[in-house]
Design goal:
The protein has a domain of about 45 residues. α1 packs antiparallel against α3. The chain has a four-stranded antiparallel β-sheet with strand order 2-3-1-4. By secondary structure, the chain is of the alpha+beta class. The chain has three helices and four strands; from the N terminus they run βαββααβ. Helices cover about 35% and strands about 40% of the residues.
Length: about 100
Amino acid sequence: MYAVVVSFDIKPEAVAQFMPLMLENARSSLRDEEGCYQFDVCTDPGRPGEVFLYELYETRAAFDVHLTMPHYKTFDTATAPMIATKHVKTFEKVEQ
């Protein structure tokens, strides 16, 4: 498994525009990407400008495919001006 966690700080004036685009990107990833197993979009209603993603992919290669998908590229281009900060962390499962 390959986990990706992303945290966004969305500009206050863009939160309402950002969320539908984010949710569509998540749905498209789950529907259209064979190696995408989970794509959770999370936020706290008290801090709607903070968005946290938890994504699970079969492999790093599956995540790399995600980054080339048309739905992701559309999302990335459309939301770039809405994002104040973005932090991405990745993790690989440690085999026991």
